[in-house]
Design brief:
Elements: H1 8-13, H2 17-40, H3 42-54, H4 58-61
Length: 80
């Protein structure tokens, strides 16, 4: 049986290596933007979030009938 030569496309892509490398690079870049950037610039992101949250009217956004949200990690009120 005669072996058929590789197509020009498979020669260009290196037998599937280039697409795999490209996907790994894209995923790594996306993860850096989502996780790495905020971790490296923590103060900037905290200030941006503080400004964005200050613009939200919590009374307007509150759903009627639900209890008001309380910080689960905040100090607990003392009951006598």
């Amino acid at each position: 049986m005669q072996r058929v030569g590789r197509s020009p496309v498979s020669k260009f892509y290196g037998g599937g290596k280039l697409p795999v490398i490209a996907v790994v690079g894209l995923v790594t870049g996306a993860l850096y933007l989502i996780v790495g950037q905020p971790l490296q610039h923590k103060k900037e992101y905290q200030e941006i979030n503080r400004q964005n949250r200050a613009e939200i009217d919590h009374v307007e956004k509150h759903t009627v009938g639900l209890p008001v949200w309380k910080d689960p990690f905040g100090p607990r009120p003392e009951h006598h």
